[in-house]
Amino acid sequence: MKIIYFSFTGNVRRFIKRTELENTLEITAENCMEPVNEPFIIVTGTIGFGEVPEPVQSF
Fold it and tell me: What does the record list as coiled-coil region(s) (predicted)?
């Protein structure tokens, strides 16, 4: 299973790197519209009052 993540401040990126998982993908402006054709889990932080960041909503 692929782990897809978005890191606004770098904290989520550091967390994912520490897991040493290999099948990961960071959501960026360049790849946010690419389809994912396998099961995945999205990992992200929240902003404000628990809101999901816009790039993750668009993904």
Answer: none
Q: Measured between alpha carbons, how far is 39 from 49 in angstroms, rounded to an integer?
A: 28
| CATH number of the domain to which 22 belongs | 3.40.50.360
Q: If we measure between CA atoms, which residue out of 3, 6, 2 comes closest to residue 53?
A: 6
What are the DSSP E strand ranges found in 1-59?
Answer: 2-6, 24-26, 40-44
Q: Could you identify the residue written with the tokens 């628990």?
A: 50
Q: Give alpha helix (H) positions in 1-59.
A: 11-19, 54-58
